[in-house]
Amino acid sequence: MARLSSGSRSWSHKAACVWLALVVLVAGLAGVLPLPYLPSVPDLAHIAQPPFATSQHWLGTDPQGRDVLSVLVFGARTAVLLTLPAAALSALLGALAGGAAGFWGNKARLPVPYWLLATGGAWWALRLPIPTLALVIAAGGLVVAALARLRQRPFPTWAVPINAIVMGTATTLDTIPRLILVVAVAAGAGVSSAGLLGLLTLTAWPHPARLVRAQMLRIRELPFVEAAHAAGLPAFQVWFRHALPHALQPLRTAMPLSVASLLGLESTLSFLGVGLPPEVASWGRLLSTVRQEPAAWWLFLFPAICLIFTILSLLNLSRQQPVAA
Amino acid sequence: MQTPNQASIDANNLLGLSLLQTDATKHENVPSLAKALPSVYLVGDSLTRLDYHIRAAATWDDGRPVLARDVEFSLKLMFCPGLPNESIRNQYRFVQAVLTDPKSPQHFILVCQGQSPEYAHASGDFFVQSEAALDPQGTLRRYSLAELQRRPNTAPADSGLQAVARRYLAAGTAALAAWPGCGPYRLTQWKKDRYLRFQRKPNWWADQLQPVPFVLQAKPKQLDFVIIPDAATATLALRGGELDVYPLMPAREFNRLRHSTAAQAGLRFYTALSHNVVTAGFNTRRPILADALTRQALSRCFDATALLRATQLGDGQRTVGIISPSDRINYNDSLALIPFDLNGAASLLRQAGWRRTTGPAGGWYRPGPSATRQHLQLRVRYRANEDVFATVALQFRAAAAELGIPVLLLPTESGAFSQALQEGDFDVYVRILMGNPFVFNFTPILHTLGVGAGNSTGFSSSRADRLIEAIAAANGPARRARLLHRFQALMQQEAPLVPLFFVSTRVAAGRGLTGLHVNSLKPGYTVAAIERPPTSTPLP
């Protein structure tokens, strides 16, 4: 088997790493950098100024008088704080869902009391009509559990088609173009930064889920998994402690791609004016201000450079080079 | 002052007519559907009778003459339950009765409460609707205008009135193209958020008039209104010749084009001071904004001078109130402009009972009713994709942040914005109020009667109500000016609104066009008088 090595890297890979490190560093230090203006403070005396026209605004200002350099710096923070967690959360969600779907398929069985408790809890949480019915269902679960214990019998079980549920949901989400889905939700209900993070996560998990599921289908047939079953370990433990860590390998490659895709999506949303709140700095929104001031090339050039370099670097990072051991 | 969408008013002006209309060339109200300005008769010391005659030639699309009955129906329709006419009701509440003349069906008298000289102009500024088309059964004839005006909201539903309301609403949405009008154009095509196409009627009744009055001239055979949401695209379309006229042009874009040699070759640029004022409004129904001192303090967070310079390149006028400084008689120049003064704002906040706390949950707090604690934090709502409003909101947020007041900006899509204002779902709004120099009726926007309708701030004060009523009924320009001066002083003291600056009308148009008559009145130019001189076709 080929072994992945970090020993030899091309110059482009090193440049990508340097650029991404710089972005992360700038994002981390945004609050303490000696910037003359915060991105939310307009300088009304200098509206749409070109770069170096005044000593205070090195990269110029936008049509609202915001300092372009500040917006780029704080936009980096937004990009890092929004897209990295969204990519990590979607990878986690996708790994758990895809891993479970691949490991158990449609053959998992869940004790009836858990079914009833879960149904009652979901009913209550979703605030469906007749909330007392949720309580009745949950109480029914407890009664069934108590009766089974009294008679010293194992809980009756019902099948849980995990694979069908996960893949069905992922396919349903995939049938709607992600941009349209996110724009529809964001434009209809309006979103905060946290809401946008949730929205990006909920729409980005199908891809990692498919990758992990495919890997898990191979892993579950390997001898060490069979040995763990034969040793009498509980199925959950086999899945979580032994199989899942091996099934996560594809995410190493997919993670930078996911970040790049989410960065592009966030910028598109901000460009369309349906993404982050206006007080949050964003490269995409800065890019969009060129529509108000078509002659202001600096409003297009600088955020475009940031976006292009970051996305190219992430793509480069995902292309890991196999090196002979 | 009105707040509806100006573009929709412009479109309606092509389909329908009012009794009187503003002549941009004379800068005064002149007869339109009416034959002449109304004759005014004062009755006793509290009533005015306005004697109108409709032009004999005036007809609806189906050939029926426009009658006094139609005017009476239109006034009654304003007060018909089930129609969203709250704002216009407050504007025309002064008309108490319509007296028609059976012998002369195009003659009628409006009986008005009060003796304001303004009534002669204000009474004729509504679109006249066809009774035969909208109420063929004559349901509204069963009610007098006064009965409909006095009808309480809690009155049991009347099936006849409901049917009229339903019919009107259906005509407004489903059968727009078949809308019965007496105006010069017919709406032939439209696509939501895209465009509207108006075709000139081939045999419009006003063509028979000799000479055709300016307000009844309709020269273009076809008018297309194209909705282009962003300035850069609209400018490209204008420069590419796909657009002939670009009204309400943003200042920077206008300035850039005006100084471009290439653009000057194909375009003309017009500018005139308008009666439209960029205004911030406070939701006085919110407990934190219910007192005048807090509102006065927040008024000092707007840097109107810098905003005027930044957004309009200085092309506009700062103001003390909602009367334009160009109206020298009525503008109260003894009042000082509200300064941008954060120290003063903090001092006023302390006077209003607010105390600033530090720490993680820092901010301004004061005791509220029932042992609660009020926290001064604001949500600013404005129409999305409007550069001027976004800049005002951003500047206010930055100033408030310096004081430690958290402000959330809520750019909102146009339709949702109107709804949010109607429902009071905001703390501060930023928008443009459109003024009319001939009418000083502030009932729709600042009177208690307007709360829940056009009075978005929810401002309600018996003193202001009395003053608004007195202005509307003032029996002479001098008295009205005195009352308007007092009104501006009161509004500055109560501060439900912060009028920031009056803006200019900017129009860019193809060099070949004539007859735009760019002026300070809404909508800033006369679309129906535009002409394109015939171009000579080169010989083969």
TrEMBL record, chain A:
Entry's family note: Belongs to the binding-protein-dependent transport system permease family.
Q: Where is the ABC transmembrane type-1 domain?
A: 122-318
Tell me where it mainly resides: membrane
Does Cell membrane count among this protein's keywords? yes
Q: Report the protein name in the record.
A: Peptide ABC transporter permease
Specify the taxonomic lineage: Bacteria, Pseudomonadati, Bacteroidota, Cytophagia, Cytophagales
Give the membrane topology.
Answer: Multi-pass membrane protein
Nucleus listed as a keyword: no
Q: One short Pfam family name for this protein?
A: BPD_transp_1
Keywords for the protein's UniProt record, in alphabetical order: Cell membrane, Membrane, Transmembrane, Transmembrane helix, Transport
Query: InterPro entries from the entry?
Result: BP-dependent_transpt_permease (IPR050366), MetI-like (IPR000515), MetI-like_sf (IPR035906)
TM ranges? 68-96, 132-148, 179-205, 296-317
SUPFAM superfamilies recorded: MetI-like (SSF161098)
Task: List the subcellular locations.
Answer: Cell membrane
TrEMBL record, chain B:
User: Which residues belong to any copy of the Solute-binding protein family domain?
Assistant: 45-436
Quote the protein name from its UniProt record. Answer: Peptide-binding protein
